[in-house]
Amino acid sequence: MTAAPLHTSQTRWAAVLVALALLLVTVVGTWLHVLPAERQLAWAAPRASNGDEPHYLVAVFSLLQDGDLDLTDDYRSANLGGPELGLRNTGQTCDHHTFWVARDRCEVVRWWDAFDAKRVVPCDTANCTPFASTAPLPEGARERPLHPPGYPVFLAMVLWPFHLSSTSIEVGVAMVVMMLGWAALLLTFLCGRRLGWSLAWSLLPVGLVLASPVMVYVRSFFTEPGITFCLVAALAGFLSGRFKWAGAALGMAVCFKPNFLLFGIVWVAVAFWSRNRRAAMQLLTTFLPVAGVGSFALTYWLLCRWLLPMPDGTFWPLTAEAAEVTFWSSQHGLFRFVPWFIPLVLLSLFGLSKPDTRLISVLVLLPTAAMTVVFLGNGVHPGYSYGPRYWVPLLPLVAIAGVAGLKAMASKTARLALIGVVGAGLFSALSALPDLVLSDGSSLFNRPPFIERVRR
Asked: Domain boundaries in the chain?
């Protein structure tokens, strides 16, 4: 696959205009809120809404305000009305997504094994936990985050120079996530340009990404926007021959969610398989240190374990029930929220038959297949979140590889396939919105967090 030069003045101006247009789309898509009851629109900062979002935010607060990841005082402050869990959760009694860790004895206890989240008890002092205790805590234990710490650490590092007040940290996090989403869209466009596509063809995968739940997650506090940026940045680096940058981006994705170690393994293997030893070694040069320090070493320092402890029953056997939850359920089904996914994967498979598109198809399809097995076996599923949460970081890559396969077709066949892809994209735009076409809107599982009354 031959990379196209991107140094002409016309190309640079096109990239600048596209970047500005995508920034406008991202800002509007992130800050514009719908108030269905009042039939109004309002401008407001995204807020941590539900599920894991407040618990990523509380870790960022702890890093910026205390310089540590000991979350006990941060959760207590939030229970007493502090902003650590986000404006929408101020003063609410929330369970803790944490481990209690006695570091000297390497003893780790999950919060849910020590407290009953369904039994709230009176708690009026700063040293009280407002839940019934079910088991003693290890002596001298500290409360550490349950979720991978890499994402909160990254957000805190970006925000630290600004010295934000406690009331501004949540908005600051929202701004960083918004910029990650914008950068992911821009890099999706630049991948097309790097492949030698015209302006219109380069915008097609961007349009498909916009017609998916990716933009919903750009206004969330989940890790998916960060992982999406990392994977698209890694692909852009690989296509441009900047393999060290690609390895670093893949390493960051592992820091945000260790499952994405599969991407790094597959890409290094593909580089060796294609007899590009230089690419493989440069990938490893940055991938291993970033993933090793930012994920495994940091986890060991916090929990005395190289990997996050997993609860019993986390992994299902690969059953029809698991497939239904993953692909077809009204809450999280990939094919229901992203109808263009199937035709774009088929086009990526077609790209395997063409020498010019084989590499990008392999880079996308092999790790996607490996991640599918992980997703099918993940009994926790996406939890309290919108749509196919775990698949969100893969969508830009599948869109790029699918469009590459489309372009490799004969002109007449490609024209018909293009009509199908555009139609699937339009249907996806409707499917990704709540209360339209396939979503019944019965709960926040189906509803993006911004389709509600904006709390000021």
From this structure: 9-31+168-431, 53-147
